[in-house]
Amino acid sequence: MTERFEGSFTQQEPIPEDGIEAAVAVMRHGRLHRYNLSEGELGETALLEQDFAAMTGARYCLAVASGGYALACALRAVGVAPDDRVLTNAFTLAPVPGAIASLGAEPVFVGVTEDLVIDLDDLAEKAAAADVLMLSHMRGHICDMDRLMAICREAGVTVIEDCAHTMGARWRGVPSGRHGLVGCYSTQTYKHANSGEGGLLVTDDEEIAARSILLSGSYMLYERHAAAPPAAAFDRLRWHVPNVSGRMDNLRAAILRPQLSRLSDRSERWAELYRAMEAGLWGVPGLTLVQRPEAEDFVGSSFQFLLLDWPEPTVAEVVARCAARGVELKWFGPEEPAGFTSRYGAWRYAPSVPMPRTDRVLAGLLDMRLPLTFDVEDCRLISRIIAEEVRGVRPAV
Ligand SMILES: *Cc1c(COP(=O)(O)O)cnc(C)c1O
């Protein structure tokens, strides 16, 4: 009998009960806008910022409307202007080049390695082309951050980190998002904390923090923050920084705070799922697992493997056969964007030159989410199905 997986790759866990209660309390009092506070009240949004700053060890934190908003806000705050070039990953999702394009700036794509991290040799070659790198820790894979920061320091490149997939992860013990000048996170439903939509931005830089807060739409109410620089930091800026409205509200913040306090437990559960997938696919001929460096403390909320140098139709057959058995694999090979998945050539507003080494990796790259509604048995079943189908259609070598 052929086994079939019946679970859903897009079903997240419910919001924890204390998050629901906190959200209901906000709805009962009606003060959803972050600056709508009663006497002496700080509000859920300011509290969330305080919590997240403490969690990441950052001096300043700002909560915003989405992860993509946080990225664009960071770019504006560091001074990226129209027609500037911004280095970024060729392997990432559309909101990253989209944030760059939203400022009228132009992405310069840097390749990906077989370990699914930014190609640091390619970065070293291209570093002179721009003043800013928007580094995407795509699918939770963290590159050698020591070498990356050395390359960028040497070339005078400012680093902004896209941590949409690394909230809670670390490199040599340092939280992801804390190597660069600014770290940006998403709290959209499919990330590590779920408020539907939402984003967070952290930095230790007083001026960047003040600019970001003004950009997000603080008006002259920036003193109602708890993880912000002192009011004096805003004096020189408040006449000059435009309001590009994108605040978070108290309802979403209320839902998020109890989730953040559970992030390390959830990361442990993700690690179990990830390890079960890895064990199940170990040693399958023709299938390459992604090496994870020892210095990387990752959150296994998704899983990738490679069918390197396989003919396209054969990869397509694996995808179709797995889908027929309930296993949804996302493939980065096809030129045509599908669902959330697209590749650098598909972003036609951002011209690029083909990168053969990157194209080779993307052509064989398969990706899946591991929602916490899965258990280890689910992962064993999913990996059995993938292993069987990969063995079944493997091309002659
Ligand atoms: C989701 C995502 C974003 C943007 O987050 P939103 O909150 O959806 O705007 C940025 N980068 C990557 C890699 C993402 O997956």
TrEMBL record:
InterPro entries: DegT/StrS_aminotransferase, PyrdxlP-dep_Trfase, PyrdxlP-dep_Trfase_major, PyrdxlP-dep_Trfase_small
Biological process per Gene Ontology, one example term: polysaccharide biosynthetic process
Keyword RNA-binding tagged: no
Gene3D superfamilies: Aspartate Aminotransferase, domain 1 (3.90.1150.10), Type I PLP-dependent aspartate aminotransferase-like (Major domain) (3.40.640.10)
Keywords linked to the UniProt accession: Aminotransferase, Pyridoxal phosphate, Transferase
GO molecular function term, any single one: pyridoxal phosphate binding
Top-level taxonomic group: Bacteria
Protein family per UniProt: Belongs to the DegT/DnrJ/EryC1 family.
Protein name: Aminotransferase
